[in-house]
Structures
1.
Amino acid sequence: MTTLTVYKEEYCISTDKAKLDVDSIHEFLSTKAYWCLNIPKNKVRTSIEHSLCFGVYLHERQIGFARIISDFSTIAYLGDVYILENYRGNGLSKWLMEVIMNYPDLQELRRWILLTGDAHELYRKFGWTDLADPSVWMELHHKNIYSQ
């Protein structure tokens, strides 16, 4: 898998897992991310180990994150996308999406999927649409699994 590090002014996006601040990622996901509140740190760590991860940094401080679950041939799931609140409004989420969508090992996939409750307009800028035929999709969703 291609390790990628790109810079824009004082910001950096990298797929180098050694740079990831797992404590920071866990803090955000477990306390601020509506999709996985209370997620245990070991679950975050395991999800990182088994995903292609994109860290967003200001100098050496991690301020954002996204991860991809993929077979790198036909499908990719985009999840856990965030920029810390104090750094929003600087175009970082758009830049993160540009980097992800142009990542060399994710080209020519048949399908990309994601779930979002509030960032539809961001993803639409990159060609994402609502499901063309929701009747063919199914899910098994344990919504409050980390709160039990």
2.
Amino acid sequence: MNNNRKFLIINGPNLNRLGKREPGIYGAKALDDLKNELKVLAEELLMSISFRQSNSEGDIIDFIHEAAGLYTGIILNAGAYTHYSYAIRDAIASVDVPVIEVHLSNVHAREEFRHKSVIAKETIGQISGFGFDSYKLALQAFNSQIRGNTV
């Protein structure tokens, strides 16, 4: 696999509970279902993807740091850390790896505290509200950038 087609998908706190946690908001599918669906899409797009999940802020920071020099891009669902983790924001700013922020639910249509993302300014974009398709759209956006179809 071409090195410019390797992507890291990082999932933050409580995403290991997909399928069990508030299925009315997050859906009935599990994190493994997301992995499997994204692997299929990545193969179609001739991409290589790796997955990480942690409920720990420090682990997420380490995943971001470790991506430098190894991955072309990061798809990050930082969960609740999105709204207050300046440490994750600083980790994103510290690496030369583009990050797309994703969310399963439309965070802007939910509780007020979810409307603010402290990491958004350091990312190249944010996709929310499309369930698993938020991640798929992020992969497709990176694929488009690789092919030179950026806006």
